Amino acid sequence: MAEDPKDWDVATKLIRGGIARSQFMETAEALYLTQGFTYDSAEGADRRFAGDEPGFVYSRFNNPTVKMFEDRLALLEGAEVCRAQATGMASVHAALIGLVKAGDHVVAGRALFGSCRWIVAELLPRFGVETTFVDATNLAEWEAAIRPNTKAVLIETPSNPVLEITDIAAVAEMAHAVGAKVVVDNVFATPIFQQPLKLGADVVVYSATKHIDGQGRVLGGAILTSEAINEEFYRDYVRHTGPALSPFNAWVLVKGLETLDLRVRRQNDTAAALADVIGEHKKVREVLYPFRKDHPGYEIAKKQMTGGGTVIAMDLGSREAAFKFLNALEIVDISNNLGDAKSMATHPPTTTHRSVPEEQRPSLGVTEGGVRLSVGLESVEDLKRDVIRALDQA
Hints:
Oligomer: single chain
Strand content: 5-15%
Strand order of the largest sheet: 1-7-6-5-4-2-3
Number of strands: 12
Distance between the termini: 59 Å
CATH superfamily of the largest domain: Type I PLP-dependent aspartate aminotransferase-like (Major domain)
């Protein structure tokens, strides 16, 4: 075709990227709900397994619907390869475990989602991988922690739940100086507002469960990287360990991508407006939103993001106040999910970061009065009214 999909604008990539129509020329992407595939001959099976003939052999390795999702997300991200996973955490696990072996070293920002932190703090050391946590906003700590045997660094920016901002380009320069790979969890920023590969990252991971689905239906995850890194570190790992994405879930995520740009831009605008309203309320000790000028990482966020995102963090001073706020909400749901069309609020110490030892939570910014608000697609005026009423009762 004369058109190069790489030259398309974001909106077109999200609608047209990766389409592979069958002989029936269907309008909507086809759902190939199958475990395996057949071959015209034994020789054909031999050629396909050898890689000499294109095609699919088993849905644990790949599947036509999953490949459509992978190709579309890769086109959006500007990546050479996307490998879809069953969940976001499967993607984080694969992204790290594929890069390291016993004797290697990993550095990560300490303000991570609870399960991500568990992988770095508990799982990797069981297999002889040493790990170090740093204040992800402090470049001097990154520089001091990175060693000659550091093979991977994990950045979560904005971080969960307090939206810390890490300078991706600066950390990537340090990591690459010792040959380490940079893994960025880009869930909160979404591929619409931040593209880490262009900032020096080697690997980007997503929980597609969040904004990519965006309607609370399915689980999914993805790793995006280069052909070379995929071949060396991920191809065989994914093939043989089986963290495969369901074709049905992939089909739902393909359809979710079609509206991603529209949804998150609307959610971003509403979140920015709500953050200002929350910041003015007398019951709020602190509000954190990356594109507010009072956010500690504001300048870096403006440099590497094109929007502040859909999530707001606030501190109401105590668990009692946080619970009163959550229980007074009438439109916003109490839920530990985020990125949904429905607005959701949660208390991280008792939900998403419950597995983090209590004494470590303050260093992550996880306070007893903390609330994380994921902004949805409801009317901004209705959400303002709901949040203000709940704050009044906090």
